[in-house]
Structure formats: structure tokens, C-alpha cells
Amino acid sequence: MRAMTIHNFDFAGSLKAFAMRSATMGRTRFRLPKYFLGCLSALCLGFVSPSLQAQQISTQESNLVVPQRIVVLVNDEPISAYDVVQRLRLTIASIGGIEDEEQLARLQEQVVRNMVDDKLKLQEAAGFELIISDEEAESAFARQAASFNQTTQQFEDYLARLGITKQAYLDQMKPEIAWGELVNGRLGRFANVAQEEVEQELARIESSAGQPEYNLSEIYLIVDNPSREADVRQSAERIVEQIREGANFAGFAQQFSQSSTAAAGGDMGWVTPDQLSPVLAEAVANLSVEGVSEPIRLAGGYYILLLKDRRRVLEADPLDMELDVRQIFMPVTAETTEDQQLAFFDTLDSMRPEMTSCDDIPTYASKLGVPDAGPLGKLRLRDLPGSLRTILEELEMQTPSQPARMEDGYRVFFVCDRTVPEVAMPEFDQIIDQLERQKLAMMARRYLRDLRRDAIVDYR
């Protein structure tokens, strides 16, 4: 038998982040009293193992009673210790766990700030007679469950295993639903985009053809008081450290980022260098794909960037190529002998010169004595596991690959067609939507800043 390369790989799946959105970083610098930190630490550390793995909480532990002591008054409306513990559990689930009591104490401070912002949003919405009912939150809850391919009951059971009540989840959704409706209702008309602005943006895109373009996610931490500069910097550094150690970027963005992208896990979409400040553009240019930047100080606060992908403007990306793939499969079970496997390799090697057509794959499979596993369908190179991408990227059309070893046997792949995607300018309406969202997000940040400035917040 002539030498033959055997490829070994696994089809890697992806897990969706269990994540929720809260606004963060209230304006008032505050420290929780030591006795309160101790109370929450005693209650919560029992639910969190010292690792960055997603945590599961036993039903017995989740039945612990938390005192209904008031922690904060926000314009005379209370936030209780029980509310804080529930939100803390949600946050821990979002970011993938915590490591020690010190980290828990820092997280508690941030969670309370988040809850203060949420209370301000609900109060402002109520002032305009905008009240989010449980029924509206239930609909959002059902959509959230469906995004994880779960029924509402399955999702509720999952939360219960984490020691989180469904009502706590609904209570976190209500401020964001209310805030979105309030901002759109009050400020939406001021975010209109003129035709001239759209034409300028289209001209900018066209002039950027061939330039690098980055798919980015961000975490933005506001420094709203010079006295908080060191604290915010340290928080940003700790977030970077934990993400690089395996924590979930989207979870941190949803819980801590103060950018409009927080609700989408920090997703900024595709941006060009000229859409970023020079400092951010320089930082991104030096990142590798899946790399996370150091905290970047700009006016207003700190940015943390994740580079998810890169390409060039208005140029087809080779990884977006679609392949029509078919395969021949040789099963390997406990009863399959080494001689049988070697015989398959020998026969495949001898047949290779005549294997030049996808139409004849059933005949090839029959001669090899194995099933024709049929088409895999249209596959985009970008979506394939790295080792399979390597096999198919350079494979000559209509010819067999080397056998790829998988858990259940060997697969021989054929690329029967390749489709290079066409690159088109964005539609006029797409540009309008993008520019309007940017304007509205900026106004929403200012709106919340004003609410914080005028609020009376009593930390107890």
C-alpha cells in the first residue's frame, strides 16, 4: 500500500452564551458595607465553585432564605438583598463563573449599580405611563428560550437549577423592554437621517474598497467621575484577564458594557478603520482573530475590543465561498479489523485515478464496499471546523480527498461545486437603519446619564 495521509478531526459545536442585559456603572462612587458583603458572600459563594466553568446549583441550596433587607433606595424605591442575590446569580451565569470571594465582592458592587440604573429606567418609563406587564416580559422570555432551542419550561427549569427564579429573570428583562420603548418613543423622531448623510456614507464605503474591515465586539466602561478612574481601569484589566482565561466576552458585555451594543453581547458588526478613533484602529490592527485588546483609554472611558474576524471592503472573502460537498463513508466499529481498514485504503488508492466525477460517487462507493453517505449540502468555508476547512479549501473539484478519520469511521470528501459570493454595496435602507441606530444609541446614553445625575440614591 502506498503512503496515504489520514486526517483526524472533530466537528466542533458552539454553545450560546446564557446571557442577559443590564446597564452598568452608576454615577455615585460607593462601597458596600462589610457586613453586607459578608452576608452576600456567605449566601452566594455556596453556589459558585472557584472556576471559570458554567455553574450548576442544587435545588436544595437554592431554597436558602435570603433576608428581605433594603440595600439601596432609588428615589425612595427599594432594592432588597434578595433582589441583589438573584441578580448576582444571573450575572455569574452570564460571565461563566467566578474564582474567589474578592472577585465576588467586586461583582456585587457592579450588580447593585446595574440594578440602580434599571430602577431609574423603570421610574422614568412609569412617568410616561409606560408599564411593562408580566405578559409582555413572558413573551420576551419565550423568545429568549427559543433562541436557546428550549421550551419556556425547559428554560425555567435551567434557571431553577442555577438557583434563579423565573420572576428574577422577568424583572431583569422589564427595564430593557421599557427603556427601548421609551427611548424610541421620546427620541426616535430626533434620530432621522437625511438623504445627504446616507449618500456620504455610501461614498465613504465605496472609497474604502480594498481596505481592511473588522468584525468587532466591544465592552465600554464609562469613567463618569475622575475619582473613579483607577477603579474603572482595574475593573477593565480584570475583565480582560478573565476573558483571556476563557470567560465569556458576550456575557461580560451584556452585564457591564455601557455601550448601545451591550444588549447584543457587544457586537459592533463590520467596521473599517476610519469608523474607529485612531487609537482603537491601531489597537485592532495589531490583534489576531479572536484576540482581545488591553483596556484602551479614550475620552469618557475604557474600551475592550474582541476581533472576531477580518476581511477587505467590497472584496469577496475566500472564507465566504460556498462548497457543494458529498462524501463516501467507511464505518469503523469494534468489530472492524485492521485488515479491513487497510483493504479500504488500498482499494481507494488504486481507484483514485478514475475517481473524477461527483455523478459517479455511488459507483465508487459500491466498488469500495461502503455506503454513499450522500450530499452534505452547501457549506461555507468560514463555518467549517479548521481541519475540515483545510481539507476542502484546496481540494481539486470532483476528486476525492484523503480519508478523514472520525469517531465513527473514515470519510472521503468530494467538492462538487464552488460558489464565490458576489459583493454588493449596502442597500440605501440598510444605511439609514445603521445611522439611525447610531444616533439613537448616543441620545440614549445621554438620557441615562441625566437620570443618574438627578437621582437621589441612598446606599444602606
Compose a concise summary of this entry.
The chain has 460 residues and is of the alpha+beta class.
Provide tags for this entry.
alpha+beta, 5-stranded mixed beta sheet, disordered N terminus
Protein model, in words:
- The structure is a single chain.
- A hairpin with a 2-residue loop joins strand 2 (70-74) and strand 3.
- Helix 1 crosses helix 4 (101-127), helix 3 crosses helix 4 (101-127) and helix 5 (134-147) packs across helix 7.
- The strands form 3 sheets. Strands 1-10-11-8-9 form a 5-stranded mixed β-sheet.
- The radius of gyration is 27 Å and the shape is globular.
- With 460 residues, it is of the alpha+beta class.
- It is 45% helix and 17% strand.
- The longest helix is centred in the N-terminal third of the chain and has 27 residues, at 101-127.
- The chain has helices at 34-44, 59-62, 81-95, 101-127, 134-147, 152-161, 166-187, 195-207, 229-244, 249-256, 278-285, 338-351, 361-368, 386-393, 428-454, and strands at 7-8, 70-74, 77-80, 212-222, 267-271, 296-298, 301-312, 322-331, 372-380, 404-406, 409-419, 457-459.
- It is built from 15 helices and 12 strands.
- It comes from Iodidimonas muriae.
- InterPro entries: OMP_Chaperone_SurA, PPIase_dom_sf, PPIase_PpiC, Trigger_fact/SurA_dom_sf.
- Keywords: Isomerase, Rotamase, Signal.
- This is Parvulin-like PPIase.
- Residues 212-309 form the PpiC domain.
